[in-house]
Amino acid sequence: MTKINVERKIKSLKKEMHNSFDISDRVLHIGNATVGFIYLKSFTDNLIFSTAIYEPISCFKGEISFEEIKKLIQANDIKEIKDEEIIDNVIKGAVVIFISSSDKILSVDIQKFNTRAPSEPPTSPVIQGPREGFTEDIKTNIGLLRKRFFSSDLVLKNFSVGRKTKTTIVIAYLHGVADKKVVKEVEKKLKAIDIDGVVDSYYLMPYLISHPNSLFKQIGNTEKPDIVSAKLLEGRVAIMLDNTPMVLTVPFVILEEMQNTNDYYTNYIYASLLRFIRAIGVFLALLGPGTYIALQLFHYNVLPIKYLITIADSTQQIPFTPFIEILFISLLFQILYEVSLRLPSYLGLATSVVGALILGDTGVKAGLISPPAVIVVAIAKIALYTIPEQSAQITVLQFVFLLIGASVGLLGLLGGLIYIIAYLNNLENFGAPYLAPFSPFILSDNKDGFVRVDIKDMKTRPKSFKNSNIRRQK
Amino acid sequence: MKDKTMNIWQAGICVFIIIFANKILLLPSLLYSIANIEGMWTYLISFIFEIGLITLFIFVKRKYRDTSFAELIRKKLGVITLKIFYILLCLFFFCKLILIYNVTYIFFKDLIYQDSGSFLFIICLLPIINYLAYSSSRVLGRTAQLFFPIILIVLIFCTVTSLISVNDMPLFFQSSFSNVMLAFIKHISSFGDTIFLFVFMDKIEYKKGDGKKLYFFAGLAILFVLLIEIAFYFSYTYTSFMHPYAIFETMGNIKDYGGLGRIDAVAVILVIILTYFQMSIYLKSFTISFKEIFPKLSINYALIFFDFLFLIVVYLFIRNLERTVLYAESVLPYFSLISFVLVPITCIVFLILKRKREDK
Questions:
Q1: Rounded to an integer, what distance in angstroms lies between the CA atom of residue A295 and that of residue B106?
Q2: HEC profile of A57-116
Q3: Do the Cβ atoms of A418 and B125 come within 8 Å?
Q4: Which domain holds residue A310?
Q5: Short-list B288, B143, B136, B287, CA closest to A415
Q6: Which residue of A has its CA nearest to B260?
Q7: Does the beta carbon of A435 lie under 8 angstroms from any beta carbon of chain B?
Q8: Are A304 and A249 members of one domain?
Q9: Could you read off the pLDDT tens digit of each residue along chain A, which spans 474 residues?
């Protein structure tokens, strides 16, 4: 058995870790043996270290051995590690213990980092239903998931990603429900990531999707454990990353954006109506301003005469073309939106008032913009947030359709719509067609599509993507 | 790369679009000018042929499940026959595309784009139909499937509002059977569209009993065409030949419907969507045929070749109603021999050969 020179070992480890100021070390001489401790004081629980590790060992009388140390430590997470694993363990919040009489090394995980308590995430507020949200601590997040599945079928696999950050990733899925091929593919894609560091789950997205240059979101993301649980029950795989409350889920289909947590905690008929309204909202947001321009510039003859007179009356004094007018109002709205997002809330409110009321009202009174144009843009921008998760994509497309409507009219607008649908039909991720269950049309999945039927009538899991067990209830 | 296939529902929707699309604008008034109200019988005759083509397709598909039509011709009739056959098909699809473009161009120009040049239409149509033709058959089928509910809802609305405008039932048997046949032969180019199924043969998933689904969609399209014809002929009766845009004209009779005003504008949306899909299906058929003639060239070359030729032809000819009608009545009928004679005979030959082999 080779003996260790504890002081020299600690010195060399500190040197390897570039003598960072938060590295702590302690040395104890007990009998003929020397015991050394090394840990990060910024990332470990000092109270546990003192009471459960340091004190019991320091109070020991007689000749101390490695096995004796193991018995004395009153912490749970104790393991023997190899020499090359010391630094990894220290930086992850463990106390590493050496003894001069043995070449064995002990690691005790006492990581502690102050994190916020689970609270309602600002991205998914609910009227009814659970308000818990994930936090930045992966252990808390795993706990939030575990308490929803008192079953050994919830499988959690972990590994780290990032050469420098070594961030913990956890893959969660339900054994016997999720498709094994999808799980393997997720694992394979995540393990193939070779990057210096990841700071948020969005960093992982490009590595998981098959069309990285696409505008459209191809991976589900949520901050709510109840949503993740529901998705796991459908046969999806969740990817949790340390230091972020955002959990990713795959496979993803666009239908998920139409569904809202509130739909499942309210009457299904009302929920169906809400989904229908959401769909109308998307179309209004996408095509509203473009259609208004197209009708004004190309197809004024298809407008009923009363509407035509109203529009003509309100636009005749406007110095700009309809396209410039709508573009100006849209850009103004977008600027106000950006400002209100980044300013503190009290200032954000003030800019909203100045922007929406003063600029809009005075713009109309000054004859720079017409009331119909303000109404059209306002409706389109409000409708944008019927599906807030897709607002970025719809905003981009809104400008594209605006340009198409102004350039080529209705023929171009419908052509653009067909193009987008065809493009989305080209997208597939983890074997799931992006537009399923609408195209290809899957009848059973449409029970939770544009309309939602009662929970007891949803007998099967989605067929839009593969899963191991299709039946949910008899 | 193997083209991804479409399922039978999607193929059925394509059949619906192809049968219905080019029969609701110009054709009713043209048929009336030859056969009066008996122009409706012309439709019935053509639909018998259309159903016949679908039946032949189902028989051939059943017997040669995973084989393409080109592969069948190559094996049974040789490579030279294959090349000649597909050159003719390419020409057929190209000529049909020119016809559809012109008919819809005149329609749009008259009704919603009075002040615009023809370049605008090409800018809108070509990129979209090129993209759909470039994508796999599955994407084309799925996109059509997603738009089908919209097509159906708008169509039901158009048909119902068209039928409301019907006043009296006109007198039948004003024209002779020979006129009905003359109308059919003169405008034969507007029929026989389901020929595209043969070009798509290996790109359609087919299981036992799927034939019924194709008949269902074909029947639905025929029903709608007939209802719109009835609405059109029964509304205008003796002046039908003066109204070129059947579906639009009948709806125009219902003014200020429920305070909505110009509801006939809805028909424009229907025509636009149908035009995009109809042209895309034909262009896809063109590219598949082109690929059979030049197997080593990629689909991009087929599209470049088509776009180039299309632009030249569109700029040099037609673009007015008289010339379009002349083109449809004098040039195109010869190409229709492909769908009404050549393809059916070839299919019958294949079926006989298969029967003989099975008997042995």
A1: 19
A2: HHCCCCCCCHHHHHHHCCCCCEEEECHHHHHHHHHCCEEEEEECCCCCEEEEECECCCCC
A3: no
A4: 266-426
A5: B143
A6: A304
A7: yes
A8: no
A9: 556 788 999 999 999 999 898 899 999 999 889 999 999 988 899 899 999 999 999 998 888 888 999 899 988 889 999 988 999 999 988 999 999 988 899 999 998 877 788 888 887 788 888 889 999 999 899 999 999 998 889 999 998 899 888 899 999 999 999 999 999 999 999 999 999 999 999 999 999 998 888 999 999 999 999 999 999 999 999 999 999 999 999 999 998 988 888 888 888 999 999 999 999 999 999 999 999 999 888 888 777 777 888 888 888 888 888 899 999 999 988 888 888 878 777 777 777 777 777 777 888 888 888 888 999 999 999 998 888 888 889 999 999 999 999 999 999 999 999 999 999 999 998 989 999 899 889 988 888 888 888 888 888 999 999 888 888 887
Name the minimum distance, in Å, from the CA of A236 to any CA of chain B.
24
DSSP label at residue B338: I
Tokens of A163: 């050469």
Q: Are residues A414 and A273 in the same domain?
A: yes
* Chain A closest-CA separation from residue B156 CA (Å): 20
Chain A CB within 8 Å of residue B204 CB: no
Answer yes or no: is A464 within a domain. Answer: no
Q: DSSP 3-state assignment of B210?
A: coil
Which residues in A lie closer than 8 A to residue B145 (C-beta atoms)? 439-441
The answer as to whether A435 is a domain residue is no
User: A236 with A334, same domain?
Assistant: no
The distance in angstroms from the start CA to the end CA of chain B is 37
A391 CB near a chain B CB, below 8 Å?
no
The Cα–Cα gap between A317 and A460 comes to 60
Task: Compute CA distances B123 → A299, A390, A407, B304, whole Å.
Answer: 18, 29, 10, 15
- Tracing tokens 């032809």 back to the chain, one arrives at B313
Pairing of strands A78-81, A105-109: antiparallel
Q: If you classify domain B8-359 with CATH, what class do you get?
A: mainly alpha
A440/chain B closest Cα distance in angstroms: 6
Distances (CA, A) of A339 to A219, A333, A348, B310: 28, 10, 7, 50
Same-domain pairing of A281 and A375: yes
**Cβ(B124)–Cβ(A415) under 8 Å?**
yes
Task: Quote the Cα angle for B146-B152-B158, to 5°.
Answer: 140
Distance CA(B49)–CA(A32), nearest Å, equals 104
**CA angle (A128 as vertex; A124, A131 as ends), nearest 5:** 50
Q: Kindly identify which residue of chain B lies nearest to residue A413, measuring between CA atoms.
A: B124
DSSP B69-116: HHHHHHHHH-HHHHHHHHHHHHHHHHHHHHHHHHHHHHHHHHHT-TT-
Query: What is this model's ipTM?
Result: 0.91
Contact assignment for A415 to B124 by CB distance below 8 Å:
yes
A-chain residues near B265 (CB < 8 A): 299, 302
Do both A341 and A363 map to the same domain?
Answer: yes
Q: Do B108 and A438 touch (CB under 8 A)?
A: no
The verdict on a CB contact (< 8 Å) between A408 and B142 is no
Verify whether the Cβ–Cβ distance A435 to B142 is below 8 Å. yes
Residue A293 lies inside a defined structural domain of this protein = yes
**A317 and A420 assigned to the same domain:** yes
